[in-house]
Amino acid sequence: MYELFFKKLNEKVSFTQEEQDIIRDYLTPKKIRKRQYLLQEGEVCKMIAFVEKGALRSYSVDEKGNEHIIQFALEGWTISDLYSFLTGEPATYNIDALEDSELVLISKSAQEEILKKCPKYETYTRLQVTGAYLAMQKRLTSIISQPLEERYNSFINLYPDIVQRVPQHMIASYMGLKPETLSRLRKKIAEK
């Protein structure tokens, strides 16, 4: 456990073995089954999850019961309700497993301790938050300005193996489409 976590960590900031050992002391491994919740709307998000193995999604449910997927997280990605995690306010998103998954959790208190003991971790955290913001901004720009076919291709580039791992209706939800619309779009792309 933690192999992929430390590989991704060191891709952003180079940590010594001693620093990695300090960080390791604050990590919590967790296995969750397919369809099991990691977080439910209304709870306070107390951790950030790194996906070692498996797939998760973050989503909200509207008043009609429709799911709106905000994020997928596959191996090497992190997932959380960052607003709730940082502010301590109730989460607006649900996070559940799409596959049996193995996670590395970092609680808020653990993160604060790591930040005290390992200053380079602050750089890593800043890069993670900046990356999340940039991804959100890019997605928003894509939704409001890219043609549908371009948006789908961007999605496939972002998540290359997702089509084999996630049901089409969830991909449609992520893209803000009805499943039938996505089906027509995929057919049109295949015909080219």
Helices and strands, with pairings:
Blueprint: H1 3-12, H2 17-24, E1 28-32, E2 37-39, E3 47-53, E4 56-61, E5 67-73, E6 78-79, H3 82-87, E7 94-97, E8 101-107, H4 108-117, H5 120-145, H6 148-158, H7 162-165, H8 168-175, H9 179-191
Antiparallel strand pairs: 1-8, 2-7, 3-6, 3-8, 4-5, 4-7
Figure out the total of helices: 9
Rg estimate, integer Å:
18 Å
The fourth-level CATH homologous superfamily of the largest domain is: Jelly Rolls
Number of domains: 2
N-to-C terminal Cα separation, in Å?
A: 43 Å
Q: What is the topology, as strand order, of the major beta sheet?
A: 1-8-3-6
CATH topology of the largest domain: Jelly Rolls
What structural class do you assign from the helix and strand content? alpha+beta
Q: Which residues form runs of ≥5 with pLDDT under 50?
A: none
Q: How confident overall, as mean pLDDT?
A: 94
- What series of H and E elements makes up the topology? HHEEEEEEHEEHHHHHH
CATH architecture of the largest domain: Sandwich
Helix percentage range? 40-55%
Anisotropy-based shape: globular
- Top-tier CATH class of the largest domain: Mainly Beta
